[in-house]
Write a structure and sequence with these properties.
CATH class: Alpha Beta
Number of domains: 1
Structural class: alpha+beta
Radius of gyration: 13 Å
Number of strands: 5
Order of helices and strands: HEEEHHEE
Largest sheet: 5 strands, antiparallel
Oligomer: single chain
Bound molecules: guanosine-5'-monophosphate, zinc ion
Helix content: 10-25%
Length: about 110
């Protein structure tokens, strides 16, 4: 989708600090980090949210989850622990309608989240 921010990042039309890439996924640093490590993992094809990505049923959601763990390993937070979040819909604060996993870590996370 040409008017989607994350599609444009995936296409290289908008710059981002890329940390990990596969044929079908891309991981890049969040522009407004909420933790010492804050990386977004996206499927390159456009899905509006987690439900759409899950419904694709082609293993892409599992690949995004696997890439999230690889990011945690390469960022050095796999041992200390990390959080993976898919904000979905307005109450969760989803602001970009292209499915993305937040990988957050490098400090203790509070629970419940705000
Ligand atoms: P959401 O609020 O939809 O769960 O997450 C969207 C995330 O995208 C936010 O954490 C926000 O900081 C990040 N973001 C928004 N615009 C950009 C951008 O242009 N580049 C990068 N790297 N991150 C962005
Ligand atoms: Zn998109």
């Amino acid at each position: 989708m040409s008017d989607c921010l994350f599609c444009r990042i995936a296409a290289g039309e908008i710059p981002a600090t890329r940390v990990l890439e596969s044929e079908r996924t891309l991981a890049f640093r969040d522009i407004n980090p909420q933790a010492p490590v804050h990386v977004l993992v996206i499927p390159k094809p456009h899905y509006a949210d987690l439900a759409g990505l899950a419904a694709a049923d082609d293993g892409l959601l599992a690949e995004v989850a696997g890439q999230a763990h690889k990011v945690a390993q390469s960022e050095g937070i796999a041992e200390t622990g990390y959080r993976v979040v898919f904000n979905t819909g307005s109450h969760a604060g989803q602001t970009v309608d292209h499915a993305h996993a937040h990988v957050l870590g490098g400090r203790p996370m509070t629970w419940p989240p705000g």
